[in-house]
UniProtKB/TrEMBL annotation:
It is an enzyme of class 3 (hydrolase). InterPro entries: A-glucoronidase_C_sf (IPR037054), GH (IPR017853), Glyco_hydro_67_aGlcAse (IPR011395), Glyco_hydro_67_aGlcAse_N (IPR005154), Glyco_hydro_67_C (IPR011099), Glyco_hydro_67_cat (IPR011100), Hex-like_dom2 (IPR029018). Keywords: Carbohydrate metabolism, Glycosidase, Hydrolase, Polysaccharide degradation, Xylan degradation. Residues 8-128 form the Alpha glucuronidase N-terminal domain. Residues 452-676 form the Glycosyl hydrolase family 67 C-terminal domain. It comes from Adhaeribacter arboris. This is Xylan alpha-1,2-glucuronidase.
Length: 681
């Protein structure tokens, strides 16, 4: 039958090695769960399904302690767990952390999965199952884990007509037409998948928002989804269209300081909470790309965010106010705009507002330096926004494992409080003592059978969740987990394919935007090369604005001789990045306009290095394609062929990028393609 990837990393196929099965069976002889709640039921069902699949025998519930039993619950709902006196271990784990302990209960060997809350137990259950799926030792477990970031949220850019902005995996999985009465199994599988990686929130609707989602007709459907997700610890959020009071409330204005507008939002929030008592809050895109916002009324972002925050504060709701803004006037450098607008507002937001900042200052490019707002707003919790969907990364035809991209930003040092002031420490709140913390990923999920279009897109959903829970995890560890669960534990498969994943992002950077080049994709759809794009309504919607190639050289000067966007970073960064000799080469043309004959570290000229990178990138995709051929024996035919065909496409696209960019830039450089690199065909 079809093996289309629907089961994601939760496949639970029989472990082939009988000895290993035996070992796990001895440690899962029964399930003792004294409490009872929808969340614990979800944990039980998952365990039952997984154990019977992996071990080929049912997991029996037991009421007594027998050797090898699994004991699940919290000290509150399980007398057995209470008797173990784990308080000192549990207290530091907070409301979502979990503890997995190999211990003895009544002199019988047992594995205890416990937490301070049922959802913690569920997270622990998924972790335990992962140990089996990845075939780890489970004899002497003492695992405690708690999320480092509180709000770990998917952002769906899903429209009410089921199209998905920047979605490449079919249509939206929210079937508004059949909601609220029809609960698609997919909603539950979606919630299971998210819970398995600790994602605890989902914004159902596009940031380019439709006010209709806030009407009763839709709110009853939102309630149905929230009810389905609740057992899995997944909270629902919505986008709020700033002009909703006019569009669905018949008011004349949406001015955030207008008393009628404030009352309208208060009432609207109360209505939302009447359907969804644990509603998470609002995500808002305002005064950006034509969206309405407080600036339409001469107010600022804080005025807008605070008005919404006040409407939901007493219910515990939060406002995630996006910093992805750019003017209707074309700036000298779009990279500066968010900082210019938001930095002066530091300290003026309500306590339940987070400002949500994209990882880099332009827009989800294959590579960007970290956004200068990180570290610059000590009094305002900043939330990270990563893009999981591959808008600028070859969309769903390219295999690009994004953990290295996310890690690069999280590990970047802002130096705002001296060395070691990493972006991760800004986001997890430890640097500036933020009370609220959050991280968002723009979802790559659609109704394709495999959820993400490209099977390897699942790894990006997976790694986003894992890094949201713990930004210190390595890309390699996450890839290893995901591959083992998704494909096989065979090292002959794991080694080459893990390597392929880990290299894939750098490869893409090479064939698309090496050395700090950016935003030279096709106009508007952002697919394929388009370095020649010019003459559009706005200069910053063209490619020539970003690469600035001339007969002399190439690159965007963001130093004091140019736009001076560099001044938005801390002095240590300014110093390092401001000098082309010390600027990390991967950001060279992001910050500097350099002559074609400028000598780079390899000893090549800048022109020679650009050519080298494009050729190398395209050649590496050829190697990826060959590597995939070598692992055919380990993968079912359907998934093997799926990836194989996509790698063929990716190789064509990489060559297309190489040839288009090299030939286009050559019209400026006037130099030959260096010997040794083949001529474009
Ligand atoms: O990346 C750009 C996209 C837009 C998107 C916008 C944003 C939702 O091209 O499609 O709109 O960013 O993040 O608001």
């Amino acid at each position: 039958f079809a093996d289309d990837g629907y089961r994601l990393w939760q496949r639970y196929d029989l472990i082939k090695d009988a000895q290993k099965r035996q070992y796990y069976q001895e440690n899962t002889t029964g399930l003792l769960m004294e409490g009872n709640s929808p969340t614990l039921t979800a944990a039980r069902q998952e365990l039952e399904m997984a154990i019977s699949g992996l071990l080929g025998k049912p997991l029996r519930s037991s009421t007594a302690i027998a050797s090898g039993v699994l004991v699940l619950g919290t000290p509150q709902n399980s007398p057995v767990i209470k008797s173990l006196n784990l308080a000192s271990k549990l207290v530091p784990l907070g409301s979502e952390g979990f503890l997995i302990l190999s211990t003895t209960v009544n002199n019988k060997k047992a594995t205890v999965i416990t937490a301070n809350s049922d959802v913690g137990v569920l997270y622990g259950t998924f972790h335990f199952l992962k140990l089996l799926q990845t075939q780890q030792d489970i004899n002497n477990l003492a695992i405690s884990s708690a999320p480092k970031i509180k709000n770990r949220i998917l952002n769906h850019w899903d429209n009410l007509d089921r199209t998905v902005e920047r979605g490449y995996a079919g249509f939206s999985i929210w079937d508004w037409h059949r909601l609220p009465d029809y609960i698609d199994q997919r909603y539950l599988d979606y919630a299971r998948a998210n819970a398995s990686i600790g994602i605890n929130g989902t914004v159902l609707t596009n940031v380019n928002a439709n006010a209709l989602i806030l009407t009763k007709d839709y709110l009853i459907k939102v309630k149905a989804l929230a009810d389905a997700f609740r057992p899995y610890g997944l909270k629902v959020y919505l986008t709020a269209r700033f002009s909703a009071p006019i569009e669905i409330g018949k008011l004349k204005t949406a001015d955030p300081l207008d008393p009628e507008v404030k009352t309208w939002w208060k009432n609207k929030a109360a209505e939302v909470y009447s359907y969804v008592p644990d509603f998470g809050g609002f995500l808002v895109k305002a005064n950006s790309e034509g969206q309405p916002g407080p600036q339409n009324y001469g107010r600022n972002h804080a005025d807008g965010a605070n008005m919404l925050a006040d409407a939901i504060a007493d219910k515990g709701g939060i406002v995630m106010w996006r910093a992805f803004v750019y003017d209707n006037k074309v700036p000298d450098d779009r990279a500066k705009q968010a900082f210019t607008e938001f930095k002066p507002l530091d300290g003026s937001f309500r306590k339940n507002v987070l400002v949500q900042v994209k990882n880099g200052p332009i827009d989800f490019q294959p590579r960007e330096p970290f956004h200068p707002l990180f570290g610059a707003m000590p009094k305002t919790p900043l939330m990270m926004e990563f893009q999981i969907t591959q808008e600028y990364l070859g969309q769903a035809t390219n295999l690009v494992y994004q953990a290295p991209l996310y890690k690069e930003t999280l590990d970047a040092d802002t130096y705002v409080k001296g060395a070691g002031s990493t972006v991760a420490k800004v986001i997890d709140g430890s640097l500036h003592h933020y009370q609220l913390t959050g991280i968002a990923g723009v979802s790559n999920i659609g109704n394709d059978r495999n959820w993400t279009g490209h099977l390897f897109g699942q790894a990006n959903w997976y790694c986003f969740g894992r890094l949201a829970w713990d930004p210190t995890l390595s890309s390699e560890k996450i890839a290893d987990e995901w591959l083992r669960m998704t494909f096989t534990n065979e090292t002959a498969f794991l080694n080459p394919i893990k390597n392929l994943m880990l290299q894939s992002r750098e490869t893409l950077v090479n064939y698309m935007t090496p050395l700090g080049l950016h935003h030279i994709m096709g106009y508007s759809h952002h697919y394929g090369p388009g370095p020649w794009i010019k003459d559009k309504q706005r200069a910053d919607w063209t490619s020539v604005y970003y690469h600035k190639a001339t007969a002399e050289g190439i690159g965007f000067d963001r130093t004091p001789t140019g736009s001076n966007a560099l001044a938005q970073y801390s002095p240590a960064i300014q110093q390092k990045f401001g000098n082309p000799q010390t600027c990390p080469e991967e950001f060279l043309l992001w910050f500097h306009h350099l002559k074609w004959d400028y000598k780079v570290k390899s000893g090549r000229t800048l022109w020679g290095e650009i050519c080298q990178r494009y050729y190398q990138g395209a050649a590496e995709v050829g190697k990826m394609r060959q590597t995939w051929q070598t692992i055919q024996a380990f993968v079912d035919a359907e998934r093997f062929n799926h990836v194989k065909m996509l790698l063929n496409i990716q190789e064509k696209e990489a060559r297309w990028w190489r040839d288009a960019c090299v030939l286009y830039f050559q019209t400026f450089s006037g130099r030959p393609i260096p010997a040794g690199l083949e001529k474009p065909t």
